[in-house]
Amino acid sequence: MTDIDLLAAQLQAEKIEEAQATARRIATEQRLIELVGAKEEGDQRTMGREWKVITTGVINRKFDEAALASLREQVPAALFEQCVRYKPEPITAGLRYLRNNEPETYAVLAQALTVTPGKTGVRVEFVGAERRAA
User: Fold this and answer.
1) 3-62, pLDDT tens digit by residue?
2) pTM of this structure
């Protein structure tokens, strides 16, 4: 076995252990929620003898953009702005195009752009049996 094989096998085993630990944690969280309860939205604190458990109910809200656009004029602007936030989001393909083909325009947008490196992904797949068969 090569170093690549050893490390890939170790990474795969660790990912399996991590998934199992995550499943156990989620099951324990669910049992705690069943025991102490949770608000639909917001925090709820429950004390044991030695531990405080805080459950936080979350409600995700998302607008249907087409529906929102069609009724925007029916809501006064000041009220609309209190309820709806428009967040500019970079389009990677467009930015790459500008960087590679229109650097002057990219330089203008880049003044408002923050770029930070992300985590490098590593994926392994076991191919031992397939390799031996080939």
Assistant:
1) 999 999 999 999 999 999 999 999 999 999 999 999 999 999 999 999 999 999 999 999
2) 0.70
- Under DSSP, is residue 111 helix (H, G, I), strand (E, B) or coil? coil
Contacts 24+ apart (CB under 8 A), 40-44: none
Which alpha helices (DSSP H) does the chain contain, by range? 3-36, 65-71, 77-83, 92-101, 103-110, 128-133
3-class SS of residue 91 = coil
Residue 42 Rama label (left phi>0; alpha psi -120 to 50; beta): left
CA 63 to chain CA centroid, nearest Å: 19
Q: How far is CA 131 from the centre of its chain?
A: 35
Instruction: Kindly state the tokens that stand for 94.
Output: 């467009």
130, pLDDT greater than 70: no
Nearest to 8 by CA among 121, 122, 119, 124: 124
What value, to the nearest 5°, has the Cα angle with vertex 124 and ends 121 and 125? 145
> How remote is the C-alpha of 106 from its chain's centroid?
27
